[in-house]
Amino acid sequence: GIQVEQSPPDLILQEGANSTLRCNFSDSVNNLQWFHQNPWGQLINLFYIPSGTKQNGRLSATTVATERYSLLYISSSQTTDSGVYFCAGGKAAGNKLTFGGGTRVLVKP
Amino acid sequence: NAGVTQTPKFRVLKTGQSMTLLCAQDMNHEYMYWYRQDPGMGLRLIHYSVGEGTTAKGEVPDGYNVSRLKKQNFLLGLESAAPSQTSVYFCASARDGFYGYTFGSGTRLTVV
After folding, report:
1. Residue A35 touches chain B, beta carbons under 8 Å
2. Residues of B in contact with A42 (CB under 8 A)
């Protein structure tokens, strides 16, 4: 199956800082998603981004499908950005997703 | 809109007991999924469904069964609970497997 590696595993930011999270895939995918899990455990879908670039407020994502990686950018970080960011990808029947191990982000005030 | 609702939110089982976790969605999504999340790890797919009356195995299906008799409901059953099934279980639904991926708030299950 597809292997998904995320880096870095942990990230500590000062409020207002920018950061980049990376996700590498062992194989090409046609379904690529980014999720945020807040400190209370709730998972929120951020982006569906199999290729190209998308932006949503202070968050943006870029996927380079030919090189099998995706980047998530957090600009002007806020304490509410804390939590774990997961990328997930798939191409099999049922559009099943394989999740990476996550990047744990802590934004300090 | 409630989105995806999971019941119960917490449960403690004794080894060998059985239980059913219920997932209900009100978005008319075709695809539904059951994942488990263990401490410090990502999510692993247990079973999934691509439409009413269909089910299929995911990455870690052993010890679990599922049913999707109605489009809006996806049930996860544990026939004989084991301590290794202690985990947080998440249900998700998606319009077509790509768009509208929505998770429930999770069920924390402890098997003693």
Report:
1. yes
2. 103, 105-106
